Structures are given as structure tokens and as C-alpha cells.
């Protein structure tokens, strides 16, 4: 059976939880680890120090290049840019908000979008 549209998780509930942990919605407020964990779609990402990171198991360089292309498009659209390392078997991504000196809502939103792009390309992630 053809895949239907992906069911959206309880976005409103996630947003409420997220806002509770991170203060005002939006903007470049620093987010706590709990706030990050409350966000939707970031299960691939680990929170360490002042950044979040994920490792995508692409399996070969050409697939890594395709994932990087998708990441670059998302980053440019958001004007928010990750550090990306493309190697033969995997792509490592690190996100932090340089202007704020830590993790903000922009990192959360881009992290979720990158995880979705990887899923759309059939690419898995190492457990966070
Ligand atoms: C001028 C430009 O909008 C800023 O430098 C943007 C560009 N991309 C960015 N990316 C990230 N990760 N953090 C930032 O603070 C940031 N700032």
C-alpha cells in the first residue's frame, strides 16, 4: 500500500512542552537539555555542551553527498548553518547558534528538518 502522508505528531502538545522548557517561543533564547528533549522529531540528536549533534549512516560517499545537498538547502532556507562532516560511511552534523552562544529554537527546528530529510532519503541514524 502506498505510504500516506506522515502522521504529524501531537505538534501542539510538543510545542507546549517545548515552550515550557525554553521560555518565550521563537527568537534566539538558549534552550535547556530538557527543552530539547521535549521537542518533536529530534530523537536522532544528542545534546552536549552548547550544541546538538547527530550521525547519519549513509553507507557510501554518493549518498552522503546527497544528504549534504539536502542539508545545505535547508540551512540556506533557514539562514542557519550546521557544521557537517561527510565521510564514506556516514555524515556527522553539529548544530549550535553562534550568535546566541548555545542551542536555540533555530537549532531544534533545523535538526528536526534534517532528520526528516534523512528519512526521506532512506538514511538511518546512529542511536543518540
Ligand atoms: C549574518 C547571518 O545571518 C548570521 O551570521 C547567521 C548565519 N548562520 C548562522 N548559523 C548558525 N548556526 N548560527 C548563527 O548564529 C548564524 N547566524
From TrEMBL:
Statement: the UniProt record of this protein carries the keyword 4Fe-4S: no
Origin superkingdom: Bacteria
Reactions this protein catalyses: (4aS,6R)-4a-hydroxy-L-erythro-5,6,7,8-tetrahydrobiopterin = (6R)-L-erythro-6,7-dihydrobiopterin + H2O
Transmembrane annotation, as ranges: none
Keyword Lyase set for record: yes
Stated family: Belongs to the pterin-4-alpha-carbinolamine dehydratase family.
Protein name: Putative pterin-4-alpha-carbinolamine dehydratase
UniProt source species: Microbacterium kribbense
Amino acid at each position: 500500500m502506498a505510504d500516506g502522508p506522515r502522521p504529524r505528531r501531537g505538534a501542539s502538545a510538543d510545542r507546549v512542552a517545548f515552550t515550557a522548557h525554553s521560555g518565550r517561543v521563537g527568537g534566539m533564547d538558549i534552550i535547556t537539555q530538557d527543552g530539547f528533549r521535549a521537542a518533536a522529531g529530534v530523537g536522532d540528536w544528542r545534546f552536549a555542551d552548547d550544541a546538538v549533534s547527530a550521525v547519519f549512516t549513509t553507507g557510501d560517499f554518493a549518498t552522503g553527498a546527497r544528504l549534504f545537498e539536502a542539508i545545505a538547502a535547508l540551512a540556506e532556507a533557514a539562514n542557519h548553518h550546521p557544521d557537517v562532516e561527510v565521510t564514506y560511511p556516514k555524515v556527522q552534523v553539529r548544530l549550535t547558534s553562534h550568535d546566541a552562544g548555545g542551542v536555540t529554537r533555530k537549532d531544534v527546528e533545523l535538526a528536526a528538518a534534517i532528520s526528516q530529510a534523512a528519512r526521506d532519503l532512506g538514511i538511518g541514524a546512529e542511536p543518540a
